[in-house]
Each structure stands twice: as structure tokens, then as C-alpha cells.
Design a protein that fits this description.
Oligomer: single chain
Pfam families: HMGL-like, IPMS_D2, LeuA_dimer
CATH topology of the largest domain: TIM Barrel
CATH class of the largest domain: Alpha Beta
Largest sheet: 8 strands, parallel
Main location: cytoplasm
Number of strands: 14
Bound molecules: acetyl coenzyme *A, 3-methyl-2-oxobutanoic acid, magnesium ion
Number of domains: 3
CATH superfamily of the largest domain: Aldolase class I
Family: Belongs to the alpha-IPM synthase/homocitrate synthase family. LeuA type 2 subfamily.
Radius of gyration: 34 Å
Subcellular location: Cytoplasm
InterPro entries: 2-isopropylmalate_synth_dimer, AIPM/Hcit_synth_CS, Aldolase_TIM, IPM_Synthase, LeuA-like_post-cat, LeuA_allosteric_dom_sf, LeuA_N_DRE-TIM, PYR_CT
Shape: elongated
């Protein structure tokens, strides 16, 4: 049993913020995005990426449209240093893309970082040091003044080194690491001090990145912290406010979204939320959350499967099957009522394809991210009539009448209850064929037939049936082809057969396409049986459907 938490853990105090604005704001445009997959994501991997994996990831980030990419912590390892050199020397950085690198506020590390960036066209130099009380006390063992001094000295060195490399277009970035549990006034003070050194202006832009290094509060508190910071920072108009949420409480996405409402211009994160511990905020989800609100995200995830494949290969970590938008199960409904609603949603959409996306249970059109509709519905014991009917329609073009859907659903349920397994598309089709007579050879197959229409409106029907290698001739009369055939069968089999339900449609648009007929017959003992017939001739399809219904009845009575 969990021990009582009170005393060991304390609630995070609220922010004193009068007339907070962010709850009334809405998101109407995408932020600036920075991918830190190659730095923060990379530092969280058991086996950090080698240059091959880093390059693969880099290419993917460019393909997705990222313009700001944190590529390394160059002073951390030779691999990271070499990777930055490789990007620059092999001219792999498009002109409109800025690489970013991270450094601690340590002189030797800063020098090494600049060495890595020699020759870069655009670069963001990202400086960080932790500012929260517990870090000041335990990690740095420094006072507030000393912590400010640490940042200021590093900022001065960075400015100096930037000025010595004027061919690079520099952006400065400062992160008060652990911002979200730093006293807000101290966070402001240290950022003001760094900005005072860097003197941000159009020619030398500055980003202030306010990380939730470890999530410690509910997202509304983070939003309050961001709004408070934006309100009180004296150079707000000259700097870009960036956020960098982690996901320790599972609310990284909420923190980022509320922070944007509170004034953040830029978001740092990783694809699918890779990163330290529970990860960085997931940029794919953030971007597609905007997209599904009608806001262009400025990132391209139209080939989601490829993105997942590359990220899994580079990180050597799987993307969860239920990961928002990207997981392999997120567009799949197994349960009956969901399948029914989705099927109706797609049917309505077919009538009016250009309308607003409104398919129940699907917040995003899978096609928008390169997914097919194939996996939208899968069938197991939780499924209802619409699931199996959808699969038959999608894969074979048969639009089953409602009563046949219900009949078939009972058969599917029997199978899934017996085996406890999901039914594949192939097994559903095989069960359907078995159940409604589409066997090869047919149990009762229609041979030659003829019909003769008479002046009195009656029709004479003659046919030859093939049953288990034997031929059987029959004839009858009625006011149409089917009623003539019913009469013939009644006489030949001595059965009071009648048709209760009849539907047919073509299987395709082309004139040579086949037709399908569905027939439900009843017999004297109140027994009913469905039969389905498919043929390029609609009359043959109907007659064969009738024979298949008969054959099904005879088989259940063990008469065939
Ligand atoms: C929240 C984040 O993601 S921050 C980024 C974290 N990422 C990484 O650390 C990955 C790359 N890091 C590394 O490879 C190594 O840490 C290196 C190469 C940078 C430094 O390694 P080392 O010199 O062995 O130092 P170490 O990693 O132990 O760092 C701790 C020391 O740095 C100090 N330090 C930590 N962060 C900072 C900082 N931002 N600025 C200045 N000093 C810092 C600590 O106080 C400690 O000092 P101490 O040894 O005097 O007690
Ligand atoms: C370096 C900083 C921005 C960081 O990664 C964090 O605080 O999580
Ligand atoms: Mg981080």
C-alpha cells in the first residue's frame, strides 16, 4: 500500500496573477517549432545516435519542414562535435534552416561549442543553467547572485565569440533550466541580466526558453508562469518566448498548448515525445492538434508511417500503438457501436465528399496523414453488424442489406466467441461465402435456363440445376422471372418457399461489371435462409441467390 504522501510531497503553490488572460485566448496560428530530437531526445537514449542515425533523422526533420533544429551538445562527445562539422562541411543545411547547439555555462565547453560551429551560415547558440532553489542549494551550492554571475559571464563570452565570427548569422538562446520551479521574480532577474549582455535586436535575435525541465504542477500553473513572465519581462517585444515542456505528469501537451495561449511564440520538443524520463513534449501531436482545429501547423506529417519508421529506427524505441495520430491502432474501431457510427459517417461523406470532416470517433481523416481506411474497422467479439459489413463492402464491394448484416453478424459473433480471436479480412470473406452459398462449386448451381413471357403477363420459366454431379430439370410459372423460379422450385422440391426480401446492385461502375443479388426466403416451418448470388448477368445473379438460399435451407435440414 502507498504510504501517506502528505509531508513528503508538497502541493505546488499557485501563481499570483491578477486577471489572467490566457483562459480566454484561442490558438489561431502555429508557433515556431524547434526539434530537439538530435540533442534532448538523443541524450535520453541508451545508445545515443551515431552519425548515420543522426543524418537519417536530420533528413527526416527537413522533410517534415522544421526550420530550427537543435542538432547536438557539441562539447559532450566527439560524435556530437563531428556531426555538427559534417552538416556544415558537407553543406547539408538549407539556407532557411538554422541549427542550434546547447552548452553549459562553462568557459571551456563554450569554446569547444564555437569550434564546432565554424563556418555555419545560421546558428543558435543555446546557453543554459539551472536556477531553481534545490539546484542552487544542492547542485551548484551557489547563491542567487553567483548563479546570475555564472550566466552573465557565459553570456559575455558567447557574445564575444559571436562577434569574432561575423560570417555566421547568430541567434542567442538562454534557458533558465528548471524555470517551472524557480521563483518567478528570480527567473525574470536572471533573464534580464543575460538580455542586458546580449542586447537583443533584429540583427541579433534572442530566444528566452522557459522550460518545464521536470513537470511539477498542473498545466494551468505553467500557463500562469508564462503569462506572468511575458507581462513582466522588460524586453518582451525584442525577444522570442519559447517553451520546452517535459512530460513527467503526462501533461506535456497541455502545458505547451496553455503556454501558447499564455504568450509563448515557440515550442521545443521531440517527435512522438522522446526525451529524458517521460520525454519532451510531442511535436507531432501538438502540430496535428492544431491541424484538427483548422490551423495550418507549418509541419508536414502527411507520410506518417514513414516518419514513424525512421524515428523508431533512429531512437531504437517503438512508437506506442495508441500514440495520438501516429499509433497503428489509433484509427481502428473494434467495438460495435463505434464501427456502426464510423460506417455511417463514411457513407454520409461519400454523398458529400467536400464537406467539413465529421466522422464519428475519428478526429482526423486518416488519409490526411497518408493512412488508408483499411484498418479503420477490425472485427473481434466486441464488434457488431457494421464491422463485418464494412469489411465486406470495403474489400469486395458488397453493400449488405440491413437484415443480412444482422444475420451475418450473428455468425461472426459465434466464431469470435468460440475462438476469442480477431477475424481477418480473409476469414470474414470465407465465412460469408460459406454462409450464403458462394461456394465453388455451388451446392445447387444454375445451368441453362429460359423464360418466356406471355401476352397475359404470365411468364414460363424452365431451368436445369446441377446438384452434386446430378442434373435436375424444373419448370414453373409466375408474373416475373423470380416468381416463375419460385413456383418451379416449390414443385420440384415440394416446399412452400417464398421470397421475403430481395436486393441487388452492381459491384462496380463499369458496364461490364458484375451484379450481386441478396435473397431471403422463408419456408413452411418459419425457417428463413439467405442466399447471395454474383454474376455478370443480373438475372442469373438473382436466380443463383435464390438457389443458394434454398441450398442453405436444405443443408440446415440435412436434406442436401
Ligand atoms: C535539462 C537538460 O537537458 S540539460 C542538458 C543535459 N545534457 C547533458 O548533460 C548531455 C551532455 N553532457 C555531457 O556530456 C557532460 O555532462 C559534459 C561533457 C557537458 C560535462 O561533463 P563533466 O565535466 O564531467 O561534468 P558533469 O557532467 O559531471 O557536470 C556537472 C558539473 O557541471 C556543473 N553544471 C551543470 N550544469 C551546468 C551549467 N548549465 N552551467 C555550468 N555548470 C553546470 C555542475 O554544477 C557540476 O559541477 P561540479 O562538478 O563542480 O560539481
Ligand atoms: C537545456 C534545457 C532547455 C532543457 O533541456 C530542459 O530544461 O529540459
Ligand atoms: Mg529538456
Amino acid at each position: 500500500m502507498l504510504t501517506q504522501p502528505a509531508g513528503k510531497y508538497l502541493p505546488f503553490p499557485p501563481v499570483k496573477l491578477d486577471a489572467r488572460q490566457w483562459p480566454s485566448n484561442t490558438l489561431t496560428r502555429a508557433p515556431r517549432w524547434l526539434s530537439t530530437d538530435l540533442r534532448d531526445g538523443n541524450q535520453a537514449l541508451a545508445e545515443p545516435m551515431d552519425s548515420r542515425r543522426k543524418l537519417l533523422f536530420w533528413d527526416l526533420l527537413l522533410q517534415c519542414g522544421f526550420k530550427e533544429i537543435e542538432v547536438a551538445f557539441p562539447s559532450a562527445s566527439q560524435t556530437d562535435f563531428n556531426f555538427v562539422r559534417q552538416l556544415i562541411e558537407e553543406q547539408r543545411i538549407p539556407d532557411d534552416v538554422s541549427i542550434q547547439v546547447l552548452t553549459q555555462a562553462r568557459s571551456d565547453l563554450i569554446e569547444r561549442t564555437f569550434a564546432a560551429l565554424q563556418g555555419a551560415k545560421n546558428a543558435t547558440l543555446h546557453l543554459y543553467n539551472a536556477t531553481a532553489p534545490v539546484f542552487r542549494r544542492l547542485v551548484f551550492r551557489q547563491s542567487k547572485e553567483e548563479i546570475i554571475q555564472l550566466a552573465v559571464s557565459a553570456a559575455k563570452q558567447i557574445r564575444q565569440l559571436c562577434e569574432e565570427q561575423p560570417d555566421t548569422h547568430w541567434t542567442f538562446e538562454y534557458s533558465p533550466e528548471t524555470f517551472c520551479f524557480t521563483e518567478l521574480d528570480f527567473a525574470l532577474e536572471i533573464c534580464e541580466a543575460v538580455a542586458e549582455i546580449w542586447q537583443p535586436c533584429a540583427a541579433r535575435p534572442m530566444i528566452i526558453n522557459l522550460p518545464a525541465t521536470v513537470e511539477v504542477s498542473t498545466p494551468n500553473v505553467y500557463a500562469d508562469q508564462i503569462e506572468y513572465f511575458c507581462r513582466h519581462f522588460t524586453r518582451r517585444a525584442e525577444v522570442c518566448i519559447s517553451v520546452h515542456p517535459h512530460n513527467d505528469r503526462g501533461t506535456g501537451i497541455a502545458c505547451a498548448e496553455l503556454a501558447m495561449l499564455a504568450g509563448a511564440d515557440r515550442v521545443e520538443g521531440c517527435l512522438f515525445g522522446n526525451g529524458e524520463r517521460t520525454g519532451n513534449v510531442d511535436l507531432v501531436t501538438l502540430a496535428l492538434n492544431l491541424y484538427t482545429q483548422g490551423v495550418p501547423p507549418g509541419l508536414d506529417f502527411s507520410q506518417m508511417k514513414q516518419v514513424v519508421d525512421v524515428v523508431e529506427q533512429c531512437n531504437q524505441l517503438p512508437v506506442h500503438p495508441r500514440h495520438p495520430y501516429a499509433g497503428e491502432l489509433v484509427f481502428t474501431a473494434f467495438s460495435g457501436s463505434h464501427q456502426d457510427a464510423i460506417k455511417k459517417g463514411f457513407a454520409a461523406r461519400q454523398q458529400q465528399p467536400e464537406t467539413r470532416w465529421e466522422v464519428p470517433y475519428l478526429p482526423l481523416d486518416p488519409a490526411d496523414i497518408g493512412c488508408s481506411y483499411e484498418a479503420v474497422i477490425r472485427v473481434n467479439s466486441q464488434s457488431g453488424k457494421s464491422g463485418a459489413a464494412w469489411m465486406i463492402e470495403q474489400n469486395h464491394g458488397l453493400t449488405l442489406p440491413r437484415a443480412l448484416q444482422q444475420d451475418f453478424s450473428r455468425r461472426v459473433q459465434q466464431q469470435t466467441d468460440t475462438h476469442g480471436k480477431e477475424m481477418t479480412q480473409a476469414s470474414i470473406w470465407q465465412l460469408f461465402r460459406e454462409a450464403y452459398g458462394l461456394r465453388d462449386p455451388m451446392s445447387v448451381a444454375l445451368g441453362e435456363y429460359s423464360s418466356q413471357s406471355q401476352a397475359n403477363g404470365q411468364l414460363n420459366f424452365r431451368a436445369e440445376l446441377l446438384m452434386g454431379g446430378k442434373r435436375k430439370a424444373l419448370c414453373g410459372r409466375g408474373n416475373g422471372l423470380l416468381s416463375g423460379a419460385v413456383d418451379a422450385l416449390r414443385q420440384a422440391f415440394d416446399l412452400p418457399l417464398s421470397i421475403q426480401d430481395y436486393h441487388e446492385h452492381t459491384l462496380g461502375q463499369r458496364s461490364d461489371s458484375r451484379s450481386v443479388a441478396y435473397i431471403r426466403c422463408t419456408f413452411d416451418d418459419n425457417q428463413a435462409a439467405w442466399g447471395v448470388g454474383i454474376d455478370s448477368d443480373v438475372s442469373r445473379a438473382s436466380l443463383q441467390a435464390l438457389l443458394n438460399a434454398l441450398a442453405n435451407y436444405l443443408q440446415t435440414r440435412r436434406l442436401l
